[in-house]
Write a structure and sequence with these properties.
The protein is an alpha/beta fold and 183 residues long. 15% of the residues lie in helices and 37% in strands. The two termini are 19 Å apart.
Length: 183
């Protein structure tokens, strides 16, 4: 079992003051092996916080990141899965499945992670898996006035990814489970 935390669109301190204490309580150092971030950490402090949770942190550059050295795209291999990452502001129109599928084919990945819309999504398309973790802070978005704070934890076991989606609704954390099997 390999646990991979997928987060994005933190926007601290520009659009959000920080993570919910309910989420912080769930994110325990030493339990997660990899962190994949779809960008918009915004500051070094947010990156440093992620490094306290796991030593293996991969980040792609969002449109609000201070660090210009983050790559636009990245491919990471975890177990049997090639996982592609991009922030999503480069995808036109934003979140468009056909545009995302084109990037998935260019990167030749099993799973494509993207962000920018601050809205959680997870679905299969053409036998590939697509995940937008949403905004872990629930940061303001000009295109979505009702942002639900969310993050994703992937449990990778052989050819299967069990995805747990954590969403904060009021004071309650709701968890949804989604499975993807590599063909």
């Amino acid at each position: 079992m390999v646990l991979v935390l997928v987060v994005g669109d933190m926007h601290i301190p520009y659009r959000a003051s920080g993570l919910s204490p309910k989420f912080k309580k769930l994110l325990v150092p030493g339990k997660i092996q990899h962190i994949l971030c779809t960008g918009n950490l915004s500051t070094r402090e947010s990156y440093d916080y992620l490094k306290t949770l796991a030593s293996d942190v991969h980040v792609v550059r969002g449109d609000f990141d201070d660090n210009a050295n983050y790559p636009e795209q990245k491919v990471v291999t975890v177990g049997q899965f090639r996982i592609g990452m991009c922030h999503g502001h480069q995808i036109c129109p934003w979140g468009d499945i056909e545009s995302l599928a084109l990037l998935q084919r260019q990167l030749d990945v099993d799973i494509l992670l993207f962000g920018h819309t601050q809205k959680f999504e997870a679905y299969e398309h053409e036998n590939r898996f697509y995940i937008n973790p949403g905004s872990i802070t629930g940061a303001y978005s000009p295109t979505n006035t009702n942002v639900t704070p969310s993050f994703v934890l992937m449990d990778i076991q052989a050819g299967t990814v069990v995805t747990y989606v954590y969403q904060l609704h009021g004071n309650d954390v709701k968890v949804e489970r989604i499975e993807y099997h590599k063909s």
